[in-house]
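Lab notebook, bench 4. Still working through the backlog of constructs that have no structural model yet. Next entry is a single chain of 390 residues. Request: give me the structure tokens for it.
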Amino acid sequence: MWDPAWLRSRSFWLETGLFLAFLALIILVAIVKPTLPVNNVQETSTPSPAMLAYFYSETDPAAAKTWIRRATVDNIDAYRQIAVFEHGSNIQPTGSLSPDGTHIALMFTEKGSPLSLSGNIWLLLTDGSYFQRISSELYNWFTWRQDSQALALADLSPEDPSKNRIIQFNLANGETSLILDDHSFLDLKPLGWSSGGAEFVIMALNPSGLWSVSSINLERSSRIERFSLPATDLLRNAWLSPSGAYLLLDIIRGQEALMILSTLDGSQQTKIASVGVGLFSTPIPFAAVWSPDGQRILINQPSAGQATTTWRTYEIKGPAGMPIDLGMVDPNHFLRPLAWSPDGNWMAMTESPFPYSRLFIKEISADDRLRIPLENINNQTSWLGWSSTQ
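Model written out:
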């Protein structure tokens, strides 16, 4: 028989309290748990933003020493030293960062060697773990293939100095292959790869006095002449687009200095800048730099009197774009843009006269340039390249 006195016992209230507490805990967890942030999942699934970095060199010519450094646009003073090396005195090494940002190719005269316009080529990993000369030969020009897996190197043939030679150095196996070996040119301007690395583009001055554009098919080792400039054209410089599909030509034609945009086969050509040539002076050469996507060009527009220089962008598929303000320049100095950043928002540039060149970076939408600091104001500096890394 049920005893109502049990309701008044201590065991009843203890058991009842434990049951109600357990029930309340279940209800609380059911309500709160779905709203709790899952911090560890969010942190691991969201990638960190890419950091825009750049590499440059600083050279003390008197001490014959060069430092390779890396910094970011967030703090240009907080650089990280990648490597330091000695070389021939009174020279400045030149270099270029690979498109994938993993290697730096450097060209310089080694310590104890006679001064020369050519130099040895060294490869440096951007983490500083590897620094090695690729061969004992000297070269006067080099460029990276778009996939960063090969270098093109230009020199005069060791067997016959009258021959212009271009070889391809493959990073994967360290082997070389011949791109060009020709003694019929009066002058040669190697430009770079096109057609996804299947062809190599050159400009050559033939014995007839004509500058011609040619593509060398690397698989068949055959050369295809694309087009020639008129005999009256004086070629000052040329730039190949990142894809290898377009050419920029800086030429003197009659009484004009012209900047010409041309397709690789020469079928379409557009005059994008022109400056009159005076009776006793020639305008300073054009300077140009391609955007990473190859759709825009930043060019200078020097005045006929060389007193002022303006900068503007040209859209490949349309009319001239909006000018880009690169900041005030000393009237006695010359400004040269070097490279757009991978995202297209920053520009690297140098202001000279040599040897006291000054290296700058600038966000295109910003008002002021940022001068890259040097340990010694009399040191020389050289741009190596932009890098966008995690």
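Notes after review: The longest helix spans residues 10-32. The chain is about 10% helix and 45% strand. Flag for follow-up if needed.
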